[in-house]
Amino acid sequence: MAKKVVATLKKEGGVKYAKIIKAVKNPTTGAYTFKEEIILQDEVNSALKN
């Protein structure tokens, strides 16, 4: 389960970035933690598949 943040991080004429937040389940306790990443906007789909 992951979601893409609505606001993307970008500069005029530069590389576009996006911030994604993933819910990661702990196998021992079953609790969820959230992992945040800032990645290139072109790599969003491949990062969410993992």
TrEMBL record:
<protein>
    <submittedName>
        <fullName>DUF4295 domain-containing protein</fullName>
    </submittedName>
</protein>
<dbReference type="InterPro" id="IPR025379">
    <property type="entry name" value="DUF4295"/>
</dbReference>
<dbReference type="Pfam" id="PF14128">
    <property type="entry name" value="DUF4295"/>
</dbReference>
